[in-house]
Specification:
single chain, alpha/beta, 4-stranded mixed sheet, 6 helices
Length: 225
Amino acid sequence: MSASPVPAADAPRIAVVDYDMGNRRSVEKALAHVGAQTVLTRDPQTLADADALVLPGVGAFPSGASSLRRYGLDVLLRERVSAGTPLLGICLGMQLLFDSSDELGVETPGLGLVPGRVRALRAGGLRLPHIGWSDVRIERPSPLSSRLPATGAPFYHVHSYVAEPAREQDVVGTAEYGERFATLVAHGQVYGTQFHPEKSSRDGLSLLAAFAALARDRRVQAVSA
């Protein structure tokens, strides 16, 4: 299944949130590849004007949460989600969507946009971090998985912590490494992938194309309003 680019005539504006936490440029380039207008920014007005937002990230939860607070992005992201803007968190960005994490032995508040917490991956003796390709099983339908094979697909993971959603219905996809864990989540217009779609070849681009389509739909609705 190939990624279908969003037509240039109605290409959505997707802002990649710049909060100094890894893999920002690669996400920006992957979104551009599927037809989105992309910008890497922390400017409040640019983020507010975007049709959708992406929160990427590599690193530790406490550092990521601290960076978001330092730039005032925690408040802005909550405001945009309340206004109906689609938001996609990737890897650390997905973890930061949740209520809290105990990474580094400290209970750190997250954005509180998806109910649940982040904890250490119970790898059952397997080497950590979990690095490599793992099959993602689709547990329930979601706009974000609409362009993926119904049975799922392999995606590239790099992590030692996992999100534990409070609501089973927020779990869209799971993978297994020592234990089965949530790796694709959706809560209203808030989405998250523990894996890296920007590093996951054709299926990763298909997922990002689906998110770009969500952003395009929001743009069309805003113009029609």
